[in-house]
Amino acid sequence: MVLAPFKSILMPIQEILYKVCVILRVVSSIVLWRDSYAAFWIVTSSFITSFVVIWIPWAIIIKWWFTIFVWTIFGPWMKLVDIYYVQRKQNTTEEERTAKMEADYERRYNLILGEWSATRIRKENAVKIMDMKRYMFGQFLMRVPIFKEERFPYEPAFTSSSMPLLRRRESSSSSSFRRHGKDGGNEDNDETSARHYNDINIVRHINGQHLSGDMVPFREKNNYDDEHDSMPLT
């Protein structure tokens, strides 16, 4: 590919732009009330919080909070901190301070290196699980959004309509009732134009798509499938 040499540079920027676009779309859907559930709960909680907060004496709370903070940080007992911490630190030699500083730097470096290694392992495991899911369940693997993240919002037209989906038994009984009714005529209503379907016969439940395991991914056992255990992917 032509852009393969620039993947390490452009890919992080594209991921950041994607996250920014998703956040802006979610905020826009809430502000414009397209996501009515989230907007309703945010507005309701804001009104309730405002009514509760309006009765709190903020002036007294802020005054006493700053008073306690100043007395705690700049009180007379700070002389003990000077005696037992500052003077003891100043009485050390230059070599001791340098050794302590180097030990502190090494501890911080090991901590950052360990966190970076753990983050890299988590990313590699996520990529491995995603590739395995694509191999097992198909390449069109995507995250189901919780909020409205679509670029173009869908607004149904005023002329759109829907019809009920009835079972065959209910439809047959209703049609026989219409045929043998008192009027004896065929009434053109919603039930006559409704779609019918056969009863679905579920004979066996298959385990879901959630995988677990480090080296060999396993399917988690389904609660409905008691006959077969989770088998490794071989």
TrEMBL record:
Organism: Fragilariopsis cylindrus CCMP1102
Keyword Transmembrane helix: yes
Spans through the membrane: 16-33, 40-58, 64-81
Region (Disordered): 165-193, 213-234
Protein name: Uncharacterized protein
The entry's keywords: Membrane, Transmembrane, Transmembrane helix
Entry keyword annotation includes Membrane: yes
